[in-house]
């Protein structure tokens, strides 16, 4: 099927909401148009509706509201074309017409987060290993949940730990 660059079907696929547009405006892509909050309000009032659900536009978090939450854009493909690093989303509507979203993170974001966590853990381990001999000893008060710093000479706690040993016990 060949899609004409003007007309209802084209507009259903390509018209985009825009906070800068008061009513209708030209689309920078050269196809269809952009529309503002006034257009959303007029459409909802005319057809006695509460919400417009649309798709076919990449949004960073998988879904995005527009116009006082009267329009929602849903995009279900995470990391679209390997270029956008976006999440995907699925919208569910319950019997009371309450909307909820399931978010699908891109595998790149999950990998980057895991890599960052691993790097941070490696950095902490290296710091403690490098400084274990120069760290002051600490004592834990019997009834306190926090760690108190003490000099080695003044330490009277029955059980003493180095900061490194406490770290490795976790």
From TrEMBL:
This is protein-serine/threonine phosphatase. It comes from Rotaria sordida. SUPFAM superfamilies: Metallo-dependent phosphatases. Keywords: Hydrolase, Manganese, Metal-binding, Protein phosphatase, Signal. SMART domains: PP2Ac. It comes from the Eukaryota. GO terms for molecular function: metal ion binding; protein serine/threonine phosphatase activity. Its cofactor is Mn(2+). One of its GO terms (cellular component) is nucleus. It catalyses: O-phospho-L-seryl-[protein] + H2O = L-seryl-[protein] + phosphate; O-phospho-L-threonyl-[protein] + H2O = L-threonyl-[protein] + phosphate. Residues 1-15 form the signal peptide.
